[in-house]
Amino acid sequence: MKALEVKKLSKSFGNLEVLKSVSFSLEKGEVLSIIGSSGGGKTTLLRCINFLEKANDGEIYVNDELVYKASSQNKLENFISPTAQLSFGLVFQQFNLFPQYTVLDNLTLAPRLRNKQTPRAQIEEQAYALLERVGLSEKANSYPCEISGGQQQRVAIARALMLNPDILCFDEPTSALDPELTGEVLKVIKSLKSGDHTMVIVTHEMEFAKNVSDKVIFMADGIIEEMGTPEQIFDNPQSPKLVAFLNKANEII
Prior knowledge:
single chain; alpha/beta; globular
């Protein structure tokens, strides 16, 4: 059973074609990193997978079940499962915590609204367990403005896990952090790598992608230019565009 399968996903903004028939699949527990230069389609792909953008064409399956289908040729074929969004958890670049709520309330708000019959104490018990997992149990009653950017991103990761999503997605989770804080967030993400968490990570951290991924996609000009294992992508790249991208990334390092 495939945890996630994307088939021929396309997305345009007016006359600008940003995604061009993108297809890939993941088994349960696999980690996929998506790399590439800005404007290549990475974040748009992630947003389409999470339904923050609606693809113009293509299909998305979760656990072999169709959750999204779009056709620009036949609108009658369009379909989105009413529970599709519940399959995905998304961690944003800018944390997106609610500033007026404590860390604990940020974690428990969505579960309390979704599961009104579940006792609050039970939901809070889960929240405390996740905060301990990301090393922040002592910050439960703090507000976002009272903790560092790295801590805020760890709270955002715990919040995404509260609804037990099938697929956990990260949109450049360290781009707003300085190098010292980046390390603590990447450590938490790496700790989630297990059979329980299927993850899709858009990242500019090449060493992290190499160490944590089962598969790596290099995107350029709206297509998957190259896809393979970390060893294939980083140690034996075939596409001239990928070679140029990696050379530039190494120069920056």
